[in-house]
Automatic annotation (TrEMBL):
Residues 1-18 form the signal peptide. It is found in: Secreted. Residues 85-222 form the C1q domain. The lineage of its organism: Eukaryota, Metazoa, Chordata, Craniata, Vertebrata. It comes from Oreochromis aureus. GO terms for cellular component: extracellular region. This is C1q domain-containing protein. Its main location: secreted. SMART domains: C1Q (SM00110). The keyword Secreted applies.
Length: 222
Protein backbone atom coordinates (compact mmCIF):
# COMPACT_ATOMS: atom_id res chain seq x y z
CA UNK A 1 0.00 0.00 0.00
CA UNK A 2 2.80 2.42 0.89
CA UNK A 3 4.60 1.51 -2.35
CA UNK A 4 1.53 2.34 -4.43
CA UNK A 5 1.10 5.69 -2.70
CA UNK A 6 4.79 6.49 -3.28
CA UNK A 7 4.54 5.86 -7.02
CA UNK A 8 1.35 7.89 -7.28
CA UNK A 9 3.03 10.83 -5.54
CA UNK A 10 6.06 10.48 -7.83
CA UNK A 11 3.88 10.57 -10.94
CA UNK A 12 2.07 13.65 -9.62
CA UNK A 13 5.37 15.46 -9.03
CA UNK A 14 6.64 14.54 -12.52
CA UNK A 15 3.42 15.75 -14.11
CA UNK A 16 3.60 19.08 -12.27
CA UNK A 17 7.27 19.48 -13.23
CA UNK A 18 6.53 18.73 -16.90
CA UNK A 19 3.71 21.30 -16.96
CA UNK A 20 5.96 23.93 -15.42
CA UNK A 21 8.71 23.15 -17.94
CA UNK A 22 6.29 23.41 -20.89
CA UNK A 23 4.90 26.65 -19.52
CA UNK A 24 8.40 28.07 -19.17
CA UNK A 25 9.26 27.04 -22.73
CA UNK A 26 6.06 28.64 -24.04
CA UNK A 27 6.81 31.85 -22.16
CA UNK A 28 10.36 31.87 -23.54
CA UNK A 29 9.09 31.35 -27.11
CA UNK A 30 6.51 34.10 -26.68
CA UNK A 31 9.19 36.48 -25.41
CA UNK A 32 11.43 35.66 -28.40
CA UNK A 33 8.57 36.26 -30.85
CA UNK A 34 7.76 39.61 -29.23
CA UNK A 35 11.44 40.58 -29.44
CA UNK A 36 11.58 39.70 -33.14
CA UNK A 37 8.36 41.62 -33.78
CA UNK A 38 9.76 44.67 -31.99
CA UNK A 39 12.91 44.51 -34.12
CA UNK A 40 10.89 44.17 -37.34
CA UNK A 41 8.66 47.06 -36.33
CA UNK A 42 11.66 49.26 -35.61
CA UNK A 43 13.29 48.26 -38.91
CA UNK A 44 10.13 48.99 -40.89
CA UNK A 45 9.78 52.37 -39.21
CA UNK A 46 13.39 53.21 -40.13
CA UNK A 47 12.86 52.12 -43.73
CA UNK A 48 9.67 54.16 -44.02
CA UNK A 49 11.53 57.20 -42.72
CA UNK A 50 14.34 56.65 -45.23
CA UNK A 51 11.84 56.23 -48.07
CA UNK A 52 10.12 59.47 -47.04
CA UNK A 53 13.45 61.30 -47.04
CA UNK A 54 14.34 59.91 -50.49
CA UNK A 55 10.95 60.89 -51.87
CA UNK A 56 11.40 64.41 -50.57
CA UNK A 57 14.91 64.59 -52.08
CA UNK A 58 13.67 63.22 -55.42
CA UNK A 59 10.76 65.64 -55.44
CA UNK A 60 13.20 68.44 -54.73
CA UNK A 61 15.41 67.29 -57.62
CA UNK A 62 12.40 67.10 -59.94
CA UNK A 63 11.26 70.55 -58.87
CA UNK A 64 14.77 71.93 -59.39
CA UNK A 65 14.93 70.38 -62.86
CA UNK A 66 11.54 71.82 -63.72
CA UNK A 67 12.60 75.24 -62.49
CA UNK A 68 15.83 75.04 -64.52
CA UNK A 69 13.98 73.98 -67.67
CA UNK A 70 11.47 76.78 -67.19
CA UNK A 71 14.28 79.27 -66.68
CA UNK A 72 16.07 78.11 -69.85
CA UNK A 73 12.82 78.21 -71.83
CA UNK A 74 12.08 81.70 -70.56
CA UNK A 75 15.59 82.84 -71.51
CA UNK A 76 15.28 81.38 -75.03
CA UNK A 77 11.88 83.02 -75.42
CA UNK A 78 13.31 86.37 -74.32
CA UNK A 79 16.21 86.01 -76.77
CA UNK A 80 13.87 85.11 -79.64
CA UNK A 81 11.55 87.97 -78.70
CA UNK A 82 14.49 90.38 -78.60
CA UNK A 83 15.68 89.19 -82.00
CA UNK A 84 12.18 89.49 -83.43
CA UNK A 85 11.96 93.05 -82.16
CA UNK A 86 15.49 94.11 -83.08
CA UNK A 87 15.94 92.33 -86.43
CA UNK A 88 13.43 93.88 -88.77
CA UNK A 89 15.46 94.29 -91.94
CA UNK A 90 17.36 91.46 -93.62
CA UNK A 91 18.36 91.51 -97.29
CA UNK A 92 21.34 90.42 -99.34
CA UNK A 93 22.51 90.00 -102.93
CA UNK A 94 25.82 88.55 -104.08
CA UNK A 95 27.46 87.32 -107.26
CA UNK A 96 30.28 84.86 -107.88
CA UNK A 97 32.51 87.88 -108.33
CA UNK A 98 34.78 86.65 -111.12
CA UNK A 99 36.30 89.58 -112.95
CA UNK A 100 37.61 87.53 -115.86
CA UNK A 101 35.63 84.84 -117.73
CA UNK A 102 35.70 81.78 -115.50
CA UNK A 103 33.93 78.41 -115.57
CA UNK A 104 33.09 76.66 -112.29
CA UNK A 105 32.59 72.89 -112.59
CA UNK A 106 31.68 70.32 -113.54
CA UNK A 107 32.45 68.37 -110.33
CA UNK A 108 31.80 64.80 -109.27
CA UNK A 109 30.08 65.92 -106.04
CA UNK A 110 27.57 68.62 -105.16
CA UNK A 111 29.42 71.82 -104.37
CA UNK A 112 28.20 74.86 -102.45
CA UNK A 113 28.65 77.96 -104.55
CA UNK A 114 30.43 80.82 -102.80
CA UNK A 115 29.14 84.16 -104.01
CA UNK A 116 32.10 86.28 -103.03
CA UNK A 117 31.07 89.62 -104.47
CA UNK A 118 28.60 91.05 -101.97
CA UNK A 119 26.31 93.71 -103.38
CA UNK A 120 24.01 94.08 -100.37
CA UNK A 121 24.11 92.44 -96.95
CA UNK A 122 21.71 94.24 -94.62
CA UNK A 123 21.63 92.39 -91.30
CA UNK A 124 24.89 90.51 -92.10
CA UNK A 125 23.05 87.19 -92.36
CA UNK A 126 24.90 86.13 -95.52
CA UNK A 127 28.45 84.78 -95.15
CA UNK A 128 30.55 85.58 -98.22
CA UNK A 129 33.26 83.13 -97.08
CA UNK A 130 30.95 80.08 -97.06
CA UNK A 131 28.14 81.10 -99.42
CA UNK A 132 25.59 80.32 -96.69
CA UNK A 133 22.71 82.47 -95.46
CA UNK A 134 21.74 81.92 -91.81
CA UNK A 135 18.34 83.12 -90.63
CA UNK A 136 18.76 85.54 -87.70
CA UNK A 137 15.05 85.50 -86.80
CA UNK A 138 12.02 83.29 -87.35
CA UNK A 139 10.06 84.49 -90.34
CA UNK A 140 9.21 84.14 -94.01
CA UNK A 141 12.06 84.83 -96.44
CA UNK A 142 12.20 85.01 -100.21
CA UNK A 143 15.20 83.71 -102.17
CA UNK A 144 16.22 83.87 -105.84
CA UNK A 145 19.22 82.57 -107.76
CA UNK A 146 20.30 83.08 -111.36
CA UNK A 147 22.70 80.78 -113.20
CA UNK A 148 24.58 81.54 -116.42
CA UNK A 149 26.11 78.88 -118.67
CA UNK A 150 27.84 78.37 -121.98
CA UNK A 151 27.32 75.88 -124.79
CA UNK A 152 28.00 72.19 -124.45
CA UNK A 153 27.70 71.73 -120.66
CA UNK A 154 24.54 71.76 -118.57
CA UNK A 155 24.25 74.87 -116.43
CA UNK A 156 22.36 74.43 -113.19
CA UNK A 157 21.93 75.29 -109.55
CA UNK A 158 19.89 73.99 -106.61
CA UNK A 159 18.60 75.82 -103.54
CA UNK A 160 19.04 73.96 -100.24
CA UNK A 161 17.69 74.55 -96.75
CA UNK A 162 19.59 72.74 -93.98
CA UNK A 163 20.75 70.12 -96.45
CA UNK A 164 17.29 69.57 -97.97
CA UNK A 165 16.72 70.26 -101.65
CA UNK A 166 14.09 72.96 -102.18
CA UNK A 167 14.20 73.77 -105.90
CA UNK A 168 16.43 73.54 -108.98
CA UNK A 169 17.04 75.50 -112.17
CA UNK A 170 19.08 74.33 -115.16
CA UNK A 171 19.56 74.60 -118.91
CA UNK A 172 21.49 72.45 -121.37
CA UNK A 173 22.46 74.67 -124.28
CA UNK A 174 23.39 73.26 -127.66
CA UNK A 175 25.01 76.48 -128.71
CA UNK A 176 25.52 79.98 -127.39
CA UNK A 177 24.92 80.87 -123.77
CA UNK A 178 21.90 80.39 -121.54
CA UNK A 179 20.61 81.39 -118.13
CA UNK A 180 18.33 79.68 -115.63
CA UNK A 181 16.69 80.97 -112.48
CA UNK A 182 14.30 80.02 -109.73
CA UNK A 183 12.85 81.53 -106.59
CA UNK A 184 10.91 80.49 -103.52
CA UNK A 185 9.53 81.81 -100.20
CA UNK A 186 10.44 79.83 -97.09
CA UNK A 187 9.44 79.84 -93.44
CA UNK A 188 12.74 79.69 -91.57
CA UNK A 189 13.52 79.14 -87.90
CA UNK A 190 16.38 80.93 -86.19
CA UNK A 191 19.63 79.31 -87.35
CA UNK A 192 18.23 77.68 -90.51
CA UNK A 193 20.73 77.81 -93.37
CA UNK A 194 20.09 78.40 -97.06
CA UNK A 195 22.61 78.02 -99.88
CA UNK A 196 22.93 77.33 -103.61
CA UNK A 197 24.76 74.22 -104.75
CA UNK A 198 26.20 73.27 -108.11
CA UNK A 199 24.73 69.86 -109.12
CA UNK A 200 26.98 66.99 -110.17
CA UNK A 201 28.02 67.34 -113.80
CA UNK A 202 26.92 70.97 -114.09
CA UNK A 203 28.96 74.04 -114.88
CA UNK A 204 28.39 77.78 -114.61
CA UNK A 205 30.12 80.70 -116.23
CA UNK A 206 30.89 84.07 -114.70
CA UNK A 207 32.67 87.26 -115.72
CA UNK A 208 32.77 90.92 -114.83
CA UNK A 209 29.08 91.30 -115.77
CA UNK A 210 27.97 89.29 -112.65
CA UNK A 211 25.52 86.98 -114.41
CA UNK A 212 25.34 84.41 -111.61
CA UNK A 213 23.73 85.75 -108.42
CA UNK A 214 22.12 84.68 -105.16
CA UNK A 215 19.68 86.98 -103.31
CA UNK A 216 17.28 86.85 -100.41
CA UNK A 217 15.33 89.04 -98.01
CA UNK A 218 13.04 88.86 -95.00
CA UNK A 219 9.38 89.40 -95.90
CA UNK A 220 8.01 89.41 -92.34
CA UNK A 221 8.78 87.91 -88.93
CA UNK A 222 6.60 85.34 -87.15
Amino acid sequence: MKIIMFFSLLLLVCSVSADQTETAVQQSDTQDIHAVLRELTASLALQNEQITVLQRENQGTINDARKQNKTETDQKFKIMTFLSLSVKQVAFSASLGKQSPTDTGPFTTETTLIFEHVITNIGNAYNQSTGIFTAPVRGVYHFEFHIFGTAGIRAGGSLFRNGDLICTAYEHPKSGSVSASNGVSLLLEVGDQVSVRLPIGSSIHENQNHHTTFSGHLIFTM
